[in-house]
Amino acid sequence: MQNKRELFMTESTEQDQTKLSDKEKKTASRDAAVRKYSLCPICSSRLHFSYQTDFGMNTTHETVKCPECAIRIRRVLHRLQ
């Protein structure tokens, strides 16, 4: 009886470690996506996001600049609903 209990505890511990590594993989991919979106691809400094909303045209202009490199990374026009 003791051996079965130890075997069960060993199997559940291995499964918990597998689940933990899956969580770590998801966290790592999420962190990579956040870094890609919020850091400059040239100098790795934090990007500055600015928004200008035009309620008459139902649009928002998003401009992303790097304060260190002084370049505009992207400019996106979003439609408001």
Write structural notes for this entry.
The chain contains one helix and three strands; from the N terminus they run H-E-E-E. By secondary structure, the protein is α+β, with helices and mostly antiparallel strands. It folds into two domains: 1-38; 40-81, no CATH class. A hairpin with a 4-residue loop joins strand 1 and strand 2 (59-66).
Task: Please give a handful of descriptors for the protein shown.
about 80 residues; alpha+beta; 2 domains; three-stranded antiparallel sheet; 1 helix; about 45% helix; disordered N terminus
Strand order of the largest sheet: 1-2-3
Helix content: 40-55%
Q: Count the strands?
A: 3
Question: Secondary-structure element sequence?
Answer: HEEE
pLDDT under 50 segments (min length 5)?
1-17
Q: How far apart are the termini? A: 65 Å
Beta-strand level of the residues, as a percent range?
A: 25-35%
- The structure class reads alpha+beta
Overall pLDDT level: 77
- Our Rg estimate from Cα atoms comes to 24 Å
Number of helices: 1
Q: Give the biggest beta sheet.
A: 3 strands, antiparallel
Net shape: flat
Q: What's the number of domains?
A: 2
